[in-house]
Amino acid sequence: MTSTQVGKDGTGDHGAPLTAQPQADGPGEGYQRALGARQIQMIAIGGAIGTGLFLGAGKAISKAGPSLILAYAVAGLVIFFIMRALGELLMYRPVSGSFSEYAREFVGPFAGFVTGWTYWLFWVVTGITEVTAAATYMTYWWDIPQWLSALVFTVILYCANLISVKLFGELEFWFSMIKVTAIIGMILICAGILTLGFSDAGDTATVGHLWSEGGFFPKGIGGTLMTLQIVMFAFLAVELVGVTAGESKDPRKTLPKAINTVPWRIAVFYVGALIMILSVVPWTEFKPGVSPFVAAFEEMGLAAGAAIVNFVVLTAALSSCNSGMYSTGRMLRDLALNSQGPRIFTRLTTRGTPLVGTTFSAALMLVGVWINYRWPGEAFNYVVSFATISGMWAWIMILVSQIRYRALADRGELPQSSFKAPGAPFTSWFALGFIGVVITMMAIDRDARISLYCAPVWGLLLGVSYLALKRRDPDAAAFNVRKRTGPAPGTAPADPVDSGRE
């Protein structure tokens, strides 16, 4: 394996400033670069569209009214800042373990350890909840045991992820296509109702609904602020495109394009969709637990609306579980390659997929589904609630890493990225402050506060585990990072032994 050792102070092995150019994209990590531009674009789009929009928006609308549109717009801007910060790091060094790799290099080995294991847990828990939800959605059409559907879905997605990364990309492409088609279809239908006046809602539909029912801020600014946590949770997984860096055919070309589409994705799929729906249906008609899409279809008199939304939400849940299968194996392998996880997780199949890490994670997802089915109690709800704060931890580490990287690059101690975040580091500091506001709102909200109770417990567990790991293997706490994106031009190929391939 080729590696360039980078000290805590941004210097090389012998303390000299690091001035080499970023490494070329290659097979040094052992993965196959099989994800094309088409798949990367849809993975990026799909990561921003989940059940949070199709189902969770109903609760947010009832809390904030039309001002939820503004909340999504501001939060979307923050997400763009986060993604551009990630893009700057990815173009500096595109690696599959992105978040933990950058945290390890620019914050410290413990930060990389915490980020890697926390992001892994986030996707395991998310996978459990999403595959359970998918099994529930199946009962809309067929009376089959929930555990059976959950088992079948998990096995299918597990096999797809082990066969090849290209198959994962294809599944994610079509899952995302269904979600995108559903939202665009809804926007076009609503636009037709507003302009042509057809359907049962044609006589009452008007953009005036955005301010006529108690104003744009019917619950006050406070009500809007309290929805920020719901809004930000809807964007969780948008950072997934960063995990694909080690398996993209041309990451330096495809990843910037995917990241630069974030603003219009949010403008169309969140802001645009909400403007249209709230123009057709007054916000007072929405209730928590009821999909705004279903409510809009009912208002239009379209009986098939519920079935359509159920199918779309089913694909959204399977898409999330598919992403979880993909992410967990890569995160475990990155931790193992940096001596922060069991060495067995480094193993790859002949097709370049992380066999043991994906299998271990899938097994936990199945156990979690069974536990959720057998004992759907408060303890499981606590774990699920923690998923939200753990997802935001990845965003925090992205921003902090980008701030520290930019400082080193500006001093000439590291090469400049070819995809600089505009306005950074000020935009990164703003995004960090916004996340701080969201966490504060979580502390105030009784329903969301439970997430903050779980975080210290997980942090303590990781702290104890890290101390034990550090005592057993000092390499796990070394202030350097292995650059595993492949050999630089003119250097020898990576040692095949280090790839972990079986």
TrEMBL record:
Transmembrane segment boundaries: 42-61, 67-86, 106-126, 146-168, 180-201, 221-241, 262-281, 301-321, 353-373, 379-400, 421-444, 450-469
InterPro entries tied to this protein: AA-permease/SLC12A_dom, Amino_acid_permease_CS
Keyword Ligase: no
GO BP terms in the entry: amino acid transport; transmembrane transport
Signal peptide range: none
Domain of life of the organism encoding this protein: Bacteria
Compartment list: Cell membrane
Region Disordered, annotated ranges: 1-30, 480-502
An example Gene Ontology CC term for this record: plasma membrane
Record flagged with keyword Membrane: yes
Residue ranges constituting the Amino acid permease/ SLC12A domain according to the UniProt record: 40-473
Membrane topology: Multi-pass membrane protein
Pfam families from the UniProt entry: AA_permease
Keyword vocabulary terms for this entry: Amino-acid transport, Cell membrane, Membrane, Transmembrane, Transmembrane helix, Transport
Homology family: Belongs to the amino acid-polyamine-organocation (APC) superfamily. Amino acid transporter (AAT) (TC 2.A.3.1) family.
PANTHER family: GABA PERMEASE, L-ASPARAGINE PERMEASE
Protein name according to UniProt: Proline-specific permease
Organism (species): Streptomyces uncialis
